[in-house]
Specification:
About 55% of the residues lie in helices and about 15% in strands. It has about 110 residues and is an alpha+beta fold.
Amino acid sequence: MRAEALKGHLDGLLLAALEAGPLHGYAVKEALRARTDGRIDLPTGTVYPALHRLERAGLISGSWSVSGGRRRRTYTLTPAGHGALGGERAGWQEFARAVTAALEVGSWSATS
């Protein structure tokens, strides 16, 4: 999937990946890849800055842990994040309906 198609939807995708429970940054990236059968495979250079931005906005909270001798930041959806995810889903559904309507065969009529 082209990166341009995801613009404006990154926050919703990341919030959705965290809906099932806490994940560290790389696991968020992998959850999205797995959930979409590899169609969405975001670069880590996109995921981590977005997670930091969502944390600053109060939509996710992060905490440090050690796993296998490595420090990892684990992220959890906050109540505000749950609300934002609902808004992202509603916005996406509206957008998808509009684009589907515009792309349907026969949805355009010639005017003269």
